[in-house]
Amino acid sequence: MIAYCRVSSQAQRPDLKNQRAVISSFCMARGLANVEYVEEIGGGLNFKRPKFTEIVDRICAGEVATLVIAHKDRLARFGFDLLRHLCAVHRCELLVIDDEKLSPEREMVEDLMTIVHCFSSRLYGLRNYKRALKTALATP
Fold this sequence. Notes:
Number of helices: 5
Shape: elongated
Strand content: 15-25%
Number of strands: 4
Strand order of the largest sheet: 2-1-3-4
Radius of gyration: 18 Å
Largest sheet: 4 strands, parallel
Structural class: alpha/beta
Order of helices and strands: EHEHEHHEH
Helix content: 55-70%
């Protein structure tokens, strides 16, 4: 059994502890034992997160019977239904603690905000890269 906790940035590290505490309480209340906690810092749009990909590989290998997450966007911001299907095909029970249903409009707004934030962060990173490249090229 794996309990996966994820936050997007180092600044959110305290939220990682909160997620783990919520999942731990959930597991104890359900009588779930032998829980392996996996914590990761990385964006939900990034499917190349090392611990995330390791979990997916282990699910596909049939090594994970249960995966517990606090909220579906902790696993992935998009493609959650595909990951749910992957778990079902490989006989891995996926337990989502906070499976709140949003209206389609609210879900779309949150998804669009996530996409805008992701790409604006990339643009900001490119500006820093261009500055560093310009400085490096200007230095003889």
